[in-house]
Specification:
The complex is a heterodimer. By secondary structure, chain A is α/β, with parallel strands linked by helices. Chain A contains 15 helices and 12 strands. By secondary structure, chain B is an all-alpha fold. Classes of the chains: A alpha/beta, B mainly alpha.
């Protein structure tokens, strides 16, 4: 164990050194280094601006009842400190329902980004909404400020309304589709995220995908329903059922042979098979320290998926800088990285270089709760896609 | 495809060495019918590998967060 810790700390020292290239100080000594030799820093911040929602989706695990709202002072600190720290920053606006903050809040955000942006920095804004509050005013704002919008839409009305309901229990399908129509008609970049539940499996992959295509929706993400640990619920879609559905979906999608239709998980797996970055966090393999979740009061966690567990809280943005929070010698970060390494070590899967061992939350928590083998949860899907690609490339024969 | 029909099982996972190898693969399947998704994806990856990640294109950059609102 001591040996392992030594190796991890050694790696972290190297990382610390590398991260500090281009800065004035390395271990309190002033040095001059060539910055172009080193990778630029990137940071993706999942910012939970409000813990309230006008919906009460049956599988939701977000805090939607404490009604905390992020203050302008907190958001100002987040923007300033993020742009002080990283060369490429992705702000992912999240909730609860992030549109409940009102347009003025985001106008302020954009103003702060312009104020603190340094030359050469890249800023991206993405917003995940339930879609029910999208109006022409919002659409104009998204378009003017190049926001990428993700809308939660599970599929046709009978499927969507089974879980995505207002607080009075009424389904939200009509309101979401109205929002999507506004986005589409105004040329705003958007995609949808669909939670795959037992109802989706019953509907079937073909009808699921046909629905999106018929409605002009060509950028689709699928998420397996996970246990809502934040609210103490452990029911979820079993892994085998998700994989069976995903394989059917892949086969149908691939048979349509239309590159305009993008299904994010499949796109990411194809990227990995072809030797490039997957593009989604769950297959990135290096999410620790790159993806951070921030609560409305400024607490910073390793990803928003871990906000229910104080052991994953890395600091508070009102008290710390990202430099401090992400210092490789931060004991909390060391513990998370050690855990990340440990949970990967027990996995012997030939596809691990494609999934990079998947999402730490699936690997670690689900294996504890469901006694599932600690894998990415996509193994059979990856195996299926890989063999199909190898066949189409002529690397294996039927 | 029925997986049980596969005559050759891959022993270990193949990953292309570089953009050149991918370009070669693309050339070999270019005139075959269909496979549009695969061809498109290879073209994207070759472009990304030769131009770098931060092209400013949403399809090529972004974490694509895996979380429901």
């Amino acid at each position: 164990m001591i040996g392992k810790i030594g190796v991890v700390i050694g790696r972290m020292k190297v990382e610390l050194y590398r991260q500090q290239q281009g800065e004035e100080k390395v271990h309190n000594a002033t040095v001059k280094v060539r910055t172009d030799r080193y990778a630029k820093r990137s940071l993706s911040l999942i910012i939970k601006v409000v813990s309230a929602c006008n919906l009460a989706c049956r599988y939701c695990d977000a805090d939607i009842y404490s009604n905390h709202r992020m203050s302008l002072d907190t958001i100002s600190q987040i923007v300033k400190k993020a742009l002080d720290y990283a060369d490429h920053v992705e702000f992912i606006w999240h909730g609860g329902e992030p549109l409940l903050m009102g347009i003025q809040f985001y106008e302020k955000v954009v103003e702060l980004q312009k104020r603190y942006r340094r030359e050469g920095q890249t800023i991206k804004n993405a917003l995940q909404t339930n879609g029910t509050l999208i109006s022409q005013q919002w659409v104009d704002f998204f378009k003017a400020n190049n926001f990428h919008v993700g809308v939660s839409l599970d599929g046709p009305p009978e499927l969507h309304n089974a879980n995505r309901v207002f607080r009075n229990g009424q389904g939200s399908f009509e309101q979401v589709m109205r929002g999507i129509r506004l986005l589409r008609e105004n040329g705003v970049k958007f995609g949808v995220l669909a939670v795959i539940t037992k109802e989706t499996v019953r509907l079937g992959a073909k009808r699921f995908l046909d629905f999106f295509i018929e409605n002009g929706i060509f950028n689709i993400g699928i998420l397996r329903q996970r246990p809502a640990l934040n609210v103490g619920r452990t029911d979820a879609l079993p892994r085998e059922e998700f994989e069976k559905f995903a394989i059917e979906l892949f086969d149908y999608w691939y048979s349509l042979d239309d590159p305009r239709i993008r299904i994010r998980g499949f796109d990411a797996i194809l990227n990995s098979i072809l030797g490039t970055r997957s593009g989604v966090c769950i297959f990135s393999g290096d999410c620790v320290g790159r993806y951070l979740g921030i609560t409305p009061v400024g607490d910073v966690y390793h990803c928003d998926e871990f906000m229910f567990d104080e052991r994953y809280k890395l600091g508070n943005i009102r008290e710390h800088t990202f430099e401090e929070i992400l210092n490789p010698m931060n004991p909390k970060l060391i513990r998370i990285r050690l855990e990340d390494l440990e949970t990967k070590k027990s996995i012997s899967c030939k596809y691990s270089k494609i999934c990079n061992y998947g999402c730490p939350k699936d690997r670690y928590f689900l294996s504890r709760i469901y006694n599932e083998e600690g894998t990415c949860g996509w193994c059979n899907v990856i195996d299926h896609i890989y063999k199909r690609v190898m066949k189409d490339l002529g690397r294996i024969k039927e | 495809m029925n997986e049980s029909n596969l005559r050759v099982e891959l022993k270990e996972v193949w990953v292309p060495k570089d953009a050149g190898e991918l370009e070669g693969l693309l050339l070999t399947i270019q005139n075959e019918p269909g496979k549009k998704i695969l061809k498109h994806k290879i073209q994207q990856v070759v472009k990304e590998k030769t131009q770098g990640y931060w092209s400013g294109d949403w399809e090529n950059w972004g974490s694509d967060w895996e979380d429901e609102g």
